[in-house]
Write a structure and sequence with these properties.
The structure holds two protein chains of two kinds. Chain A is an all-alpha fold. Helix content of chain A is 74%, strand content 0%. Chain B folds into two domains: 1-77, no CATH class; 80-109. The chains are: A mainly alpha, B mainly alpha. Chains A and B meet through helix 1, helix 3 and helix 6 of A and helix 1, helix 2 and helix 3 of B. Chain B: The chain crosses the membrane at residues 27-47, 53-74, 86-108.
């Protein structure tokens, strides 16, 4: 670190520890740029899905016959709540409460794991009724889009777990705060993508 | 060295920090409540089959866009001071995303 950063007299760490150093600022801005790129990447998958909706699928394997609203609603609630707990973790990080930050991050991880478990259950169910990656163009587009989101959730879980283990006994400082903050941005972005998935893939698939 | 004298001005500062954090907390909770509400409206409308099929797409997408804006601007603090480049790049991403979806939608049949 090139120079000392000003500490907040109450919390004992800088007011925005994730952006207090040049390195932190660079990570913050660069990560947002990455999310801008991810937006386009997911858009290409959404466009493909919308174009291929129900294409090549037999009547009993079409979107309005296979999607279960209850499970999707549960998954939505899990992920949405995990986005809030991630916010609470970051608020506690800025207030220099490492214990509470870790608690809320663990809650976030548990909710995320619940979501992932439900998604795996859903995919296994589809596999058994014959809706697979290779069963139709609709199947390919569906699994590419939803599976890619699921892979993001998996990566986010591993990322936050690694950060927690690595920094478990460390105080919050300008070195690890940007790491936590950027991982929470990633987690919110996963929820941003899911909002479009539950609206466009599932709900729209049920009415079409 | 690090110890702060517990004088009046420090106490005042502590109160200000607490008030600020309470405001932030309330804002985040209100935002979360609105997201839950939007989700319920979206699922409820489909569950109760309230909409004609032609209107469902536009309605659901508008609800999704509102919810995503709450995520970006309140949960993720995209509009913080000094985020000009971030906002610019995100909007560029959204712009290209819209063109991508529209193009693929029109090209595949």
């Amino acid at each position: 670190m090139a120079h000392a950063v000003e500490k907040h007299p109450v919390t004992g760490i800088p007011a925005n520890p994730e952006k207090a150093t040049l390195e932190g600022k660079n990570k913050y801005v660069a990560f947002w740029f990455f999310l801008g790129g991810e937006t386009v990447l997911f858009a290409s998958l959404f466009g493909t899905y919308v174009g291929l909706l129900n294409s090549g699928a037999p009547e009993e394997l079409r979107s309005y016959n296979i999607f279960e609203m209850g499970l999707v609603f549960l998954m939505t609630m899990l992920l949405l709540t995990s986005s809030l707990t991630s916010v609470l973790a970051m608020m506690n990080m800025k207030a220099n409460n490492p214990g509470r930050m870790k608690f809320w991050l663990i809650v976030t991880l548990l909710l995320g794991a619940g979501f992932l478990g439900a998604e795996i259950y859903e995919f296994i169910h589809y596999y058994h009724i014959g809706h697979t990656f290779t069963s139709s163009a609709f199947g390919s587009a569906f699994y590419t889009l939803v599976g890619f989101h699921g892979a993001h959730v998996t990566f986010g879980l591993l990322w936050i777990t690694t950060l927690l283990i690595r920094n478990w006994n460390r105080p919050i400082d300008v070195y690890n705060a940007p790491k936590f903050y950027v991982s929470s941005l990633y987690w919110h972005f996963i929820d941003v993508v899911w909002v479009f998935i539950f609206s466009i893939v599932y709900l729209l698939g049920m009415v079409s | 060295m690090e110890k702060q004298p517990m004088n009046e001005s420090h106490k005042q500062l502590e109160l200000e920090v607490k008030a600020e954090s309470r405001r932030e907390y309330q804002l985040q909770l209100i935002s979360f409540a609105m997201m839950i509400l939007l989700t319920f409206v979206a699922f409820g409308a489909v569950y109760a089959e309230l909409m004609p099929v032609w209107a469902a797409g536009g309605f659901l997408i508008i609800l999704a866009i509102i919810q995503v804006f709450l995520q970006l601007y309140i949960f993720m603090h995209m509009n913080n001071r000094g985020n000009t480049w971030i906002v610019g790049m995100m909007w560029l991403g959204i712009f290209v995303a819209i063109i991508t979806v529209a193009a693929l939608r029109l090209l595949i049949w």
